[in-house]
Structure formats: structure tokens, C-alpha cells
UniProtKB/TrEMBL annotation:
Localization (cell): Cell membrane
Stretch of the intact protein here: 171 to 439 of 443
GO molecular function terms attached to this record: ATP binding; phosphoprotein phosphatase activity; phosphorelay sensor kinase activity
GO cellular-component term (any): plasma membrane
GO terms, biological process: cellular response to phosphate starvation; phosphate ion transport
Chief subcellular location: membrane
Chemical reaction(s) catalysed: ATP + protein L-histidine = ADP + protein N-phospho-L-histidine
Keyword entries, A-Z: ATP-binding, Cell membrane, Kinase, Membrane, Nucleotide-binding, Phosphate transport, Phosphoprotein, Transferase, Transmembrane, Transmembrane helix, Transport, Two-component regulatory system
Name recorded for this polypeptide: Phosphate regulon sensor protein PhoR
Functional summary from the UniProt entry: Member of the two-component regulatory system PhoR/PhoB involved in the phosphate regulon genes expression. PhoR may function as a membrane-associated protein kinase that phosphorylates PhoB in response to environmental signals.
Top-level taxon of the source organism: Bacteria
EC numbers, comma separated: 2.7.13.3
EC top class named in words: transferase
Length: 269
């Protein structure tokens, strides 16, 4: 029957005996699809009212307002922006969930992509006095979707900045070896207890709810990273020690790498 989705599992037991179990997962997949559609539609519908609210707030804040009013409006603007980030992350996530692989991939200049994120992060980290190290392989591009990769890499870099206290240090690396391409972000920040690591890429999973939401994230960053990587044939590894710091590494298979051609290099000169 073509309308049904079956999942098979083979269990071996005894002297070469096998048990084949088929499970009908049609209903489960339909429910999952309904959930995805609902999230996509709801986030889409929330975009317009939020734009209107933020537009008015900006106009009002351009005027001289009594102090308490000004304070209240600043709060409203801050929270509305937070909601806007949340809505756009929800939309992005539901687009990522809609298909398993990137379709129209292009050679992405990873070096300049990472360089841009690095510059934005150093600017944002100025108040916290973070120092940064940047190490980039120059010879390979990555086949994929630039917007998605930008989103994944910047989430990891901003997280490092967010969860690293004053005067911390952050290292950003992109390198290629026989196993593929790797992008890593290492910080010497607050670190993560081992029991949380396996669940970090779940939507809205947070180690410390109040600290994380105060810091301005949406709780969807690592879920986005995970989906982007799996759409590029890759995966994420997390190494961390509470109180010492963390390393998040994205791995991409060799098939997704391209040697930068010599003429491309000439263009850059
Ligand atoms: P958030 O918006 O809350 O940062 P993420 O999905 O990006 O959401 O991350 C999930 C949780 O993982 C965070 O709330 C935080 O507890 C933890 N986390 C992520 N990156 C780091 C890091 N570099 N150091 C310590 N904890 C981190």
C-alpha cells in the first residue's frame, strides 16, 4: 500500500534467527507535518503585526518623551525585537525542516563568510573585552547555501560570546583534513555540565533558563545549527567542561568541499 509509511527493524537472536518488525508510522508522520505547518503559518502571521508595532515604537521614541514613558517604550522595543528574532528563527527552522538536503547549492566562500562573522562578533564583544583568535584554511570553498551556513556559524560564535564572561578568549577555526572540512568555535566561558550536552540541540532546551533568555538568545540557535549541518551532509560535536569552556565543531564531508581555483585567487588580488 503506497499511502502508508512503514518502518522496519530487524532483531537477531539465537542461532542466526531473525525477527522482522514492521511499524506503521503514517499517523506519526502526518502529525509531525501538521505541527511543522502550524509553526510555519503562525510565525508567518506574527511577522506583520510585529513590524507595525516596532514601526510605531521607533517613531514615538524619536520624540522627547517623559522619563517613565521613555523607559517603558524602550522596554517594549527591546521585547518586541526579541519576539521578532524568535519569529524569524522559528520560520527559518520550519524551512530547514521542510527538506532533508539543500537543493540549489553553490560554492560558498567560507573564509570571507567567517571573516565577516568574526568582525561582527569582535564589535559586539567590545564591552566584554573578549579577545579572539582566527585561523582559516584559504584553499577550499564549501558547497551549500550561504544564508544557512552564515546562520549556523554565527549562532556558534555569538553563543561563545554570550556564555563567556568578561575578558574571556574565543578561538575560531576553519580547516580541512582527510576527513573533510571543520569549523570550530572554542571559548573559555561558563561551560556545560555533561548531563546537558546530548539535549542542547533540542528546540528551547536551555541549561539555565533565566540566564539564557536574559542574554538575548531565542533558544533555537543550536537546533538551527543541527538542521543546517545535516542538510549539508555534516554533523555537530560538542566538547565542554563546566566552569572551563566549550568547543563546538561542525564537520562537513569531503564531497561538499571544492578547491578554490587559481583564477578565483587572482580575482581577489
Ligand atoms: P540560546 O538562545 O538559549 O543560546 P541555543 O540553542 O543557541 O539557545 O543554546 C542552547 C543552550 O546551550 C543555551 O541556552 C546555553 O545554556 C547552552 N550553550 C550554548 N552555547 C554555549 C556555550 N558556548 N557555552 C556555554 N553554554 C552554551
Amino acid at each position: 500500500n503506497h499511502d502508508r509509511e512503514l518502518q522496519y527493524q530487524i532483531t537477531r537472536f539465537g542461532a542466526g534467527d531473525r525477527l522482522l518488525v514492521a511499524r506503521d508510522i503514517t499517523q506519526m508522520l502526518r502529525l509531525e507535518q501538521t505541527r511543522q505547518d502550524f509553526v510555519a503559518n503562525a510565525s508567518h502571521e506574527l511577522r506583520t503585526p510585529l513590524t507595525v508595532i516596532l514601526g510605531y515604537l521607533e517613531t514615538f521614541l524619536d520624540h522627547d518623551l517623559p522619563r517613565p514613558l521613555q523607559r517603558g517604550m524602550n522596554q517594549m522595543q527591546q521585547q518586541a525585537r526579541r519576539m521578532q528574532n524568535l519569529v524569524s528563527d522559528l520560520l527559518l527552522l520550519s524551512r530547514l525542516e521542510a527538506s532533508r538536503q539543500v537543493s540549489d547549492e553553490h560554492p560558498v566562500k567560507v573564509q570571507s563568510l567567517i571573516q565577516n562573522i568574526y568582525e561582527a562578533a569582535t564589535e559586539l564583544s567590545r564591552d566584554k573585552g573578549h579577545t579572539f583568535d582566527l585561523e582559516l584554511d584559504q584553499q577550499h570553498d564549501l558547497l551549500g547555501q550561504e544564508i544557512e551556513l552564515h546562520s549556523a556559524f554565527s549562532n556558534l560564535v555569538y553563543n561563545a560570546a554570550r556564555y563567556t564572561p568578561q575578558d574571556g578568549h574565543i578561538e575560531i577555526r576553519w580547516w580541512v583534513d582527510k576527513d573533510g572540512g571543520h569549523f570550530s568555535v572554542t571559548d573559555n566561558g561558563i561551560g556545560i555540565d555533561a548531563m546537558h550536552i546530548a539535549r542542547l540541540t533540542e528546540r528551547f532546551y536551555r541549561v539555565d533558563e533565566s540566564r539564557s533568555s536574559e542574554s538575548g538568545g531565542t533558544g533555537l540557535g543550536l537546533a538551527i545549527v543541527k538542521h543546517v549541518l545535516s542538510r549539508h551532509g555534516g554533523n555537530l560535536t560538542i566538547r565542554s567542561k563546566k566552569g572551563e569552556g566549550s568547543t563546538f565543531t561542525c564537520h562537513f564531508p569531503l564531497e561538499y568541499l571544492m578547491l578554490v581555483s587559481v583564477s578565483d585567487n587572482d580575482d581577489d588580488l
